Amino acid sequence: MTTNNPLKAAWQALYRHAEEMRATHLRALFAEDPQRFAAFSLQSGDILMDFSKQRLTSVTLRLLRQIASASGLSCWRQRMADGNAINHTENRAVLHMALRAPAQAAPDAATAREVAENLEHMRAFCAALHTQPGGGERVTDVVHLGIGGSDLGPRMAVQALAACQHPDLRLHFVANVDGAALAPLLARLNPRSTLFIVVSKTFATQETLTNARTAREWVDASLPETNARAGADAVARHFVAVTSNLAAATAFGIPAARVFLFGEGVGGRFSLWSPVGLSLALAIGFSGFTALLSGARQMDAHFLEAPPEKNLPLTLALLDLWNADALGAHSHGIFPYSQSLELFPAYLQQLEMESLGKSVDRQGAPLAHGGSPILWGAAGTSGQHAVFQLLHQGRALVPCDFLLLKHADFPLPDHHLRLLANGLAQSAALAFGETPEEARARQVDAALLPWRAFPGNQPSTTLLLERLTPHVLGQLLALYEHKVFCLGVLWNLNAFDQWGVELGKKMAQRLLPYLEDEGETPGAVLDASTRGLIAALNAGCAA
Ligand code: F6P
After folding, report:
1. How many CB atoms lie within 10 A of CB 538?
2. pLDDT computed for residue 287 by the predictor
3. Pocket test for ligand 1, best of 92, 145, 198, 202 (most atoms within 8 A of CB)
4. Of 188, 233, 306, 451, which sits 20 to 30 A from 253 (CA to CA)?
């Protein structure tokens, strides 16, 4: 049935085309067009994106771009850049691009001023830290306390950029409320030379505040003489906060001058560019942090200005849409061939799944298309020896992103060549597989052929990064941020709220008293399963 609605018509055309493409093998596509690499690769700044191993043709791309155009993508992109409240369920603007924009490109003068002040606050603190005594001694250890978006970005980036790290400073990250995360760390730290950065946008997150209170008690108890001295206060000296909630941070005991603020319009998973990145700035120096911002800004400019056929973030989003909606992929693998990027899949899981893991559209109706696939991944080559069996011979269609570094970020050059050879080999093996005939020609035992053949046709995109510097990492992260934005528009959902995490948080608050006070018996208000488990736990505690 045809329709007058251009968006509906574009989706219908894509689904019809998918029927024709579903049985097409990547072998056939490469045999038909030996120039596939040239036709299906793009470059922006220091990132080359090869998507020739995706199961598509130029017709596919044309149809995908029709959906983008009919979705009003360029209009939404401008609305975000202009600071409109596109996060409609929270009535908030989406301002992470403003954090790295030149003043004249900020949505308004107040935002530009706020960003500049925050950056200056960070710069001055970074400059002072390496000379400033922390409770009488030089700061040797920085403990970043935060969770989710207040943890994953800085944690991942500090590890990714370890090669440029300040040699005299150790960085630690504690997110989990499990005492197993904080206790062993406190046991080996010297309180006199330790700085805690409490990072929480709301300053109300149970896990972060529990860890921060424990750290505060530890500092107070370890440095009584600092507290005894007139005018000196151990917590004030050994803590800083990064938050949007100044009142709560000062109520905790952190002086206002040591509170780094960022605005409501910066979502946790998009907040690395704000003072949430303070621990990263301390690790790699403020100039390294500004290089990260400039890399992201370069990708922003590309995203805003490049035409659709050259636009990396838009193309990456369209590939996801093609794989998920048209070819039916339910999961997506992320494989950085870089030990330094080991945490990149975890970071991306939050960015994508918290943004796109929705089933209701902007109008409140069930989604007509899309919703996030399940993201997973591991650093290569280690992942090859753990999860790749499923990719090569399992039944699931799992599109993958491979990330390769042209230049190593650590010495041992022959290791790097082996790493690259493996990354290239995996994407080729997944794409082309090995037929039973080829296996036979390789002298594979005929009796084992059913198990020794590789079907191939597993699609992938390879991102080749020039090298892992702050500037290039900034480009990479902004690329994925904008991909997420595009998918939100294409799937007609709000990528910037996260209501789904609220229910469990509230329930945990309700259940805590039953565990704290073993005598209290949960009433019929709780379900039988939870009641039974609480009773078993309390019985265990008493034993
Ligand atoms: O529980 C999810 C979440 O709300 C994330 O979106 C956020 O990044 C994280 O918790 C931490 O929140 P906050 O920075 O307010 O402590």
Report:
1. 18
2. 97
3. 202
4. 188
